[in-house]
Specification:
276 residues; mainly alpha; ABC transporter involved in vitamin B12 uptake, BtuC; 10 helices; 83% helix; globular
Length: 276
């Protein structure tokens, strides 16, 4: 029986490791930028592109659907990179929230006329990570490795861009270029991740482990290691619980992340109380 569980979870767990590796890193950038919901908005834009592709009759995991979703995500990346350099009369978080709400509403409207709309909507929101294939895991690992290497080579530029506040209409061309490159690579990650894990789980992989890391440790390296450990433990717990109780895997992993974050907060508060 244990061997059966291992066979069932080995590839989903490897997929979770791949997702955790890139999303925790990007999550630290997102938290630094103060645009917490940008991943949720980009994931929703990607999901909208996939929804349109499915309604056009293309298969869920086909190349045309992926390219359509990617083009939608690039459009969102361009919008977010541009609006960051605008006047602060309107917060970028407001723009991000509007994009998310409108994209979600359009997707719901499109699927409302489809006989299998509810099923497709559920798949895009919570994903099907438990049924991921070795081929998808390998392709995703290669893509994320390339993106990770690109960010490592230009880590100084990306970190400086994330740490700089929006500078209004006076933002330099260089800042805007690196800002767009950040969101563009972010778009590649989000589009690929949504196909595997769905909108909600992608958002959780990005924000929750990074938030937990910020609670406990300092320094980029330590936060990455802490966030990766948090993501792996939360994913493993969620998968085990979902298999044992026969409940949706993606939603269970999100719930596991939430519980672990709550426990981390309690531990942090206890430590602070003891030392104060």
């Amino acid at each position: 029986m244990i061997a059966d569980y291992f066979d069932l979870m080995i590839w989903p767990l490897l997929a979770a490791l791949v997702l955790t590796g890139i999303h925790v890193y990007l999550g630290l950038h997102v938290v630094t930028r103060g645009v917490i919901f940008v991943d949720l908005a980009l994931a929703q834009i990607a999901a909208l592109g996939m929804a349109i592709g499915v309604l056009l009759g293309w298969a869920d995991n086909s190349l045309p659907v992926y390219l359509l979703a990617l083009s939608f995500t690039f459009l969102g990346a361009a919008i977010f990179a541009y609006t960051r350099s605008l006047t602060r009369a309107v917060s970028q978080e407001a723009i991000i929230g509007i994009v998310y709400a409108v994209s979600a509403a359009i997707m719901i409207i499109l699927f409302s006329k489809s006989a299998e709309g509810a099923e497709h909507l559920n798949h895009l929101l919570v994903g099907s990570i438990l049924f991921v294939t070795p081929q998808i895991v390998l392709k995703t690992f290669i893509l994320y490795s390339i993106i990770g290497m690109f960010h490592w080579i230009y880590r100084k530029q990306f970190m400086q861009t994330s740490e700089l506040p929006g500078s209004g209409g006076n933002a330099s061309i260089n800042l805007k270029v690196w800002d767009f490159l950040f969101y563009m690579t972010f778009g590649f990650v989000v589009t690929s991740s949504v196909r595997i894990a769905g909108v909600f789980l992608v958002f959780s992989f990005l924000i929750i482990p990074a938030t937990a890391a910020l609670l406990f440790v300092k320094g980029v390296k330590n936060r990455l290691l802490f966030g990766w450990a948090f993501g792996v433990i939360g994913s493993l717990l969620g998968m085990i619980i979902s298999v044992l109780l026969d409940i949706p895997t993606g939603a269970t992993i999100v719930a596991s992340f939430g519980v672990l974050l709550l426990l981390s907060g309690i531990v942090k508060a206890s430590i602070f109380k003891t030392t104060s």
